[in-house]
Amino acid sequence: MIVKDLFVKPIDRNIQGVIKVGQTDDSFIQQELEEYVVTNELKKHFNTFFDRYIERISGNTRTASGTDKIGVWISGFFGSGKSHFLKILSYILKNKEAGGKKALDYFIDKKIDYNLLIPNMTRAASEANNTDIILFNIDSKNSSGSGDERDPLVSVFLRVFNEMQGYCGPDPYIASLERRLEEQNKLEEYKKIFQTKENNSWDEARYDVGFIQDSIIDAIVEVGLMSKEAARNWCEKIATPYTISNEDFALLVKKYLDRKGKNHRIIFMVDEMGQFIGQDSRLMLNLQTLVEDLGTVCQGKAWVVVTSQEDIDSITQNMAARSNDFSKIQGRFDTRLSLSSADVSEVIRKRILEKTTSASQTLSLMYDEKATVIRNLIVFSNTAQKKLYENANNFATDYPFVPYQFDLLGNVLTAIREHGASGKHLAQGERSMLALFKESAIHLSPKDIGPLVPFNLFYDALDKFLDSGHRNVIQSALRNERINPANKESCLAVEVLKTLFLVKYVKEITATLENITSLMCSSIDEDRLELTKNIQNALILLQEETLVSKNGDIYIFLTNEEQEVNREIERQNVSSAEVIQSASVIIFDDIIGENKYKLSDFGGRYSYSYNQLIDGIQHNPRKNLPITLQIITPDSEQQTDTSSLHMKSSQMTGVLVVLPQQTDFLNELRRHLRIEKYLRSGVYQTLQGANDIKGKLQDENCSRKEAARSLLEDALREARIFVNGTEKTTGNKDIKSKINDALDTVVNSVYHKRSYIDTPLGIDNIRKLFNQDIPVLLPGGGNPNKHALDDMRFFIESNSQKHQRASMRTLQDYFTKEPYGFIEDDIEWLCARLFKDGDINVYINNSQISIQDKTESELVNYFTRKQYADSLTTEIRRKANDTQLKNIREVLKALFNLLGYNSPPFRAVQKQAKSDKLDR
User: Fold this and answer.
1) CATH of 24-58+67-162+263-351, one of 3.90.1150.10, 3.40.50.720, 3.40.50.880, 3.40.50.300
2) pTM flag (> 0.85)
């Protein structure tokens, strides 16, 4: 079975997928009414509209002011069927006849049974003779023809109002003349007189007023409307701009309605109002006033129904941010209908994709057989959830399309329009989702079942409606001998380029390699691995030809202007040293975030700074420290074989971190720096849309830097770490933990005497040492920090033997370095304890101090204040040795005839002797 034979209706039949509000041929209208699909959602929208409409034309409003709420706002993304819905409403309200049937009959045939929908439709259609419908695309009626110089809304409304009555739309002066003549029942007489004088009908000649003024003046005078002088003065005014206020226009409409009869109504049905207004708050305020005046002056008999891609709340909220009040317009458009993508999907499935019974059975069996293959074929990541086939029935219904394509194509069309990538026809609603799906299905129709519609195929249906700037990129790629050496109608690289264009402006999907592969799957039997490989090669080629750029793992289609900017960026000179320095900032300041290693014991009391190097370049140069953390990148010229790394690690005191040979983060940083230089150069300021270019590049630069950071984190996680000539096994720890584990080994090796401080003591403990009223009770009892006291005593004694006194600063300089690594609190307490125990003498400005002569506060200040670090000096205190003590005992015994060493008199003498100085 071939694809063409799957469908209930011929796929290649003439389908009016293109909906134009100005298309009024009977055959078109008949097909629109016959094939219009009333989905469940549309039933609700029809019910809401006709419920409000009947309620207000009947006067049964819920509030006294309800009749002036005559605005209807229809929103939905591009291609969602807003224009079609608007036309169908107009057909029903006018009960248009097509194909020998009234519009209402087509809906009765559809057997709509939603509440009072059919009765309300019938009531509305019964008022057709009393209802004027003015259906128009507002942009096509804007006489300025420029998006930046739009007519006031009231001028456009006046034009279509005049045209509806048969008056001259483009020239309001002529229309006002015709209106005045008709009010006096002189219009037909005027036309006959004019034709006699000009030998041309008035309806044809009135558009060239500048050439027929004499005939106009003569005809005006002959019908008795004005004198010749007044007529000539009036003709001179035609060359000046015509102005009319919103209120005057509303009064003009009311005057017309009053003349037509008590129950007459007029409905302005405006397509693409939201697109026309855009972000122009002036136009929004104009619409607000116009609708308000029409509602108030015409008392509910003049309605305004508009379509827009955005709902009114979104537009007014964005504008309100610029300090404008749009609360009134939200109240005027209190009937709001939002068409969703689900509605479009249902219409496409019913009008195009409906399958025959045998086709559905065949496709269901195919899915059952290959369900696992199909589920593994199309996979999306790092993006909003995409709908895929749920079951065999879903597959049979949507084939040869994939469910995600319904939503995504709608997003693509809206994004293309919003970013100005569409040509005139697409911008005016000349393409619809229906047409795009139909044309894509026709492409596969002669093939046996099995192929799928790849997303790039939608580009071919859109191509001729896009602006030349984007089409030329694709056409140039086709002519490029490197990209398309065989000069075929297309090739894989060009199809990849088409895919990237389609998703360029879409937020709902990221163009990663995996996602591009899923978008381009063209058969349920596709070899995904082979396709991924081929697409990757194509992307590399497209990058080399500067048609595509890469930001992290996302690929970006480049317009002609973006290509030129990209080439200028690539010309910016960035050295390897600049790239490494940039990587250094990210690694050391951001990812690691500190340049000290804190030991875990004693609550992080001890921390040790270390040198930070990357490829031999010092980060934030400082004095040389005993420990080094060195990182080697793929750009390094150092040998990175295992034996060389072991040797280098054994020759340094520190940690060696070797990043894997993956250069993506370096490429991201290089691009980041080039963009920075390009922006600083200001070259972009000469290009059209300079501010837009600057904004995009700034956004790209932020994402480039963030991507580089993420890639660096990945590289650090995978890095090899060497310490003391040995490669460490780090497991699954985070990078900070890995580096800290390695630094712990180095720190404990370099500062191996740090453990001599077994009890951390500080200024409070020094104060207790010198407080005579408080007994010294040391933590844990015993003699804390004994080895540290011994080493400080030995250091002071060594200096004393050289006839040098060690200052507090000398002690700090010595004991804060390796192998000790003490902190100042440790050193101050050790020195104070030695002084308290009588092991050292202490001098302030060369004057010896004693515990008895100084207050507790003074003593604490001497040992802890930085101002005394140089003036406080120490030397060892000499004590009597055992021989000297024995001789003293003998002398005391001989002199005082003491009875023994243990007698009280001797013990008193002995105690006093220990406290005196004994100099050699």
Assistant:
1) 3.40.50.300
2) no
